[in-house]
C-alpha cells in the first residue's frame, strides 16, 4: 500500500505506466496484459480508493471526478512518478482523460491511452 493508502501492483522496469481500472473492479483487471507491458515499462496497476484492496479513505470516497483525479495525482507524488504514461478503461479512462486535460496546467502525465 502506498503512503496515500492506495494498493497497487508494480512490475517491470522502464518508463512508468500507470494502469487505472474501471468502476467496480480492481488492479487485477489488467492481469492478462500486465507481464507483457512490464517487459518494456515500470507498470503500476492501481486499486482506486475504495476498490479492490484499497480502503475507503478516512474522509470518505472521493465524491466527484476532481477528487478521484486528486487521489491519483497524490499517488504519483508518493511514488515519485514524474509525468508517467497512463492507461485506463471505463472509470479509469475517464480519470486518465481528466489527467490529460490537467497536464497542460500541472504537467502530471506524459501520455494517456484509453
Short description:
With about 110 residues, this protein is α/β, with parallel strands linked by helices. Helices cover about 35% and strands about 20% of the residues.
Helices and strands in order, then pairings?
Layout (H helix, E strand, L loop, with lengths): L7 E4 L3 E6 L10 H8 L2 E6 L18 H14 L6 E4 L2 H16 L5 E2 L1
Parallel strand pairs: 2-3, 2-4, 4-5
Antiparallel strand pairs: 1-3
Description:
The protein has 114 residues and is α/β, with parallel strands linked by helices. Helix content is 33%, strand content 19%. Helix 2 (65-78) crosses helix 3 (91-106).
Question: What attributes characterize this protein structure?
Answer:
114 residues; five-stranded mixed beta sheet; alpha/beta; 19% strand
Give the quaternary arrangement of the chains: single chain
Alpha carbon gyration radius: 13 Å
Backbone structural class: alpha/beta
**Count, helices:** 3
Strand numbers in spatial order across the main sheet:
1-3-2-4-5
Largest sheet: 5 strands, mixed
Number of strands: 5
- In whole angstroms, how far apart are the ends? 25 Å
Which bin fits the share of residues in helices? 25-40%
Mean pLDDT reading: 86
Identify the overall geometry: globular
What is the H/E order? EEHEHEHE
Strand content: 15-25%
Which stretches of 5+ consecutive residues score pLDDT under 50? none
Amino acid at each position: 500500500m502506498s503512503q496515500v493508502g492506495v494498493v497497487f501492483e508494480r512490475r517491470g522496469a522502464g518508463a512508468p505506466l500507470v494502469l487505472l481500472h474501471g468502476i467496480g473492479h480492481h488492479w487485477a483487471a489488467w492481469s492478462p496484459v500486465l507481464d507483457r507491458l512490464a517487459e518494456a515499462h515500470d507498470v503500476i496497476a492501481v486499486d482506486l480508493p475504495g476498490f479492490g484492496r484499497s480502503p475507503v479513505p478516512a474522509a470518505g470516497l472521493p465524491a466527484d471526478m476532481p477528487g478521484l483525479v486528486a487521489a491519483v495525482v497524490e499517488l504519483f507524488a508518493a511514488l515519485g512518478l514524474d509525468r508517467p504514461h497512463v492507461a485506463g478503461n471505463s472509470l479509469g479512462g475517464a480519470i486518465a482523460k481528466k489527467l490529460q486535460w490537467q497536464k497542460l496546467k500541472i504537467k502530471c502525465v506524459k501520455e494517456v491511452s484509453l
